Amino acid sequence: MNTLKNDLSRTTTVINELGIHARPAARIAAIASAARSDVRLRKNGEQADATSIIDILSLACFKGTVVTLEISHPEDMPVLNKIIDLFERGFEE
Amino acid sequence: MQSDVREMILKGISGSPGICIGKAYLVDKEGVDVIEKYSISPEAVRKEVDRFKTAVTKARNELEDTIKRVPEELRHHAAILETHLLLHKDKMFYGKIIDMIKIRMINAEWALKETTAQTKAMFNDISDPYLKSRAADIEHVAERIMGNLVGIKAVNIAGIDKRVILVAHNLSPAQTSQIQLEKVMGFITDRGGRASHTSIIARTLEIPAVLGLDNATSIIKNDNIIIVDGTAGIVIVHPEEETLIRYDELAKKYAQRKADILRTSVRPAESIDGQAFSIMGNIELPEEVVAVKDHGGDGIGLYRTEFLYMNRDTFPDEQELFNQYKEVAELMYPQPVTIRTLDVNGDKAILGMETPDEANPALGLRAIRFCLQKPGMFKTQFRAILRAAAFGNVRVLLPMISGSEEIHETLKIIDQAAESLEKDGFPYNRNIKTGIMIEVPSAAIIADQLADMVDFFSIGTNDLVQYTLAIDRGNRQVAYLYNTLHPAVIRMIKFVVDAGKKKQIKTFMCGEMAAEIFNLPILMGIGIDALSMAPQSIPSVKNMIRKISVSESRLFLKEVLKQTSAADTMQLITDTYGKTLTNGIYHT
Prior knowledge:
The complex is a heterodimer. Chain A is α+β, with helices and mostly antiparallel strands.
């Protein structure tokens, strides 16, 4: 496995009951907007721009969906970790 | 004035249960739909973009004001408005519209309308109903901007000064947040479904709502007297006097019953003739224990353990499993927690493991069959369960058992798990009660033999019915044949319970059948010992049990067993228990 690529992406599962609806999407987008380069959300080969609520919503991530979050630059690691943390806490819903 | 108008019944979707009678108050923004399309000259493009930007800024300011004015009790719903605030500037929306104005040289209204339509179309491909209905969020944002572009004044709900029933085409979260709760008795909307925002808010506030009425806003006029029956999903316009009296009584009864149920949900479920039934909750995550307790559950009748195994690269380790099981066991103590071992099936691919393509996954490598092929993984789960059993009242439940060999093999693995724990010096409890799911017809038919090998049975009706009737519930062509009241199903359940009683072991039921109150007279007559269901169903099931006599239900069962079809059985239930059931249904 490509370790470098691995370092820049993390995989998690959507655990909150209602999935990634507008509110979680907005929280992701708000954090992703602070990144210095692209942040992408991937699901089954599809991808979304993590700074766009609409793009995130269009991925249709419901409860149980496995998603991969990917950054393009190591400096954005805090962004990656913050968003993954949100996923893991079920967006505090 | 009312003499020439006829009583009219409108049918919609039940958004939130309850009944209210009152005057209609229409909230709508007519005219916004008529959008003109026109070209703009190259010189005017910049001005047009600015016009759009101004409308967005104004919309954002208005929304910020609204957020500030959200009453304290609805503060947590205001988060959706904060989201809308961000949506205004979303690049897939805001950026796209500006590009469209520039490139196609069209007016801002049209660009907005078209982008909104495109975005909404994207949501139509989403199958999840909740996520799909998020298209409404885009629509609300667009509406507000459009209102500013074309200059329409939004109706201000905050100004309502009497107790009313709100009638709207579609209530936006912004509108709902402005509502003074004490002034609103119910909601009616043309659009929306059970997953819509209006429905969620109405249920939170526990006021009735009927949605998806299509044309309520064109039929109902301001100040019309209307009846909202949120339980049945109907609205009655211009009710006649008798109807009013009838519903007034129903509304009072409903309120009374709701209060009763809440007060009594923690009390035991005891039949009229004094037999107690254990009513437990089904859970998947430790967090759900709270819901079971809040709804008066007598324990966990089904703790699904798939969650920790899903979507990861390795099997969960023993400590991770143990921590979760222990938490649930401790939270529930002294009440029982029934942990079902890994029950993976076709829908739930685990570990991204490429499960071989199976023509019939429901009849394939799943549940106990899968686990017995992975004895190491299975042993890990048992070690975690046995360790957790040292901290609470834990039982273990084996899914998809079809014959005695599977039980033998599994018991051996449990013994090995116990031996290894002994060697490793962990505290554990080997005297754990072991039960099997009765969901494969073969297991039901030899229940008398299997009863010698285990401590309890748990009937999983969803699969048992599916396998017995050879019906795939997911297949629309045949789903109508799926019926828990099929005589074969009732006989099979009775046989299992009787076999258990002969060998002095208890039989539980944890499928959907257990939560439907019209099944209770039959299940009580059969002599089932405990039921487990979604936590929210517990109060109404407990309440229903308190209205039924076991000795009567035994006589009733004799009649049921004579019926030759599910329809006849249903008729018999309605004839015998109809009144009790209707009263019961009204508080679900």
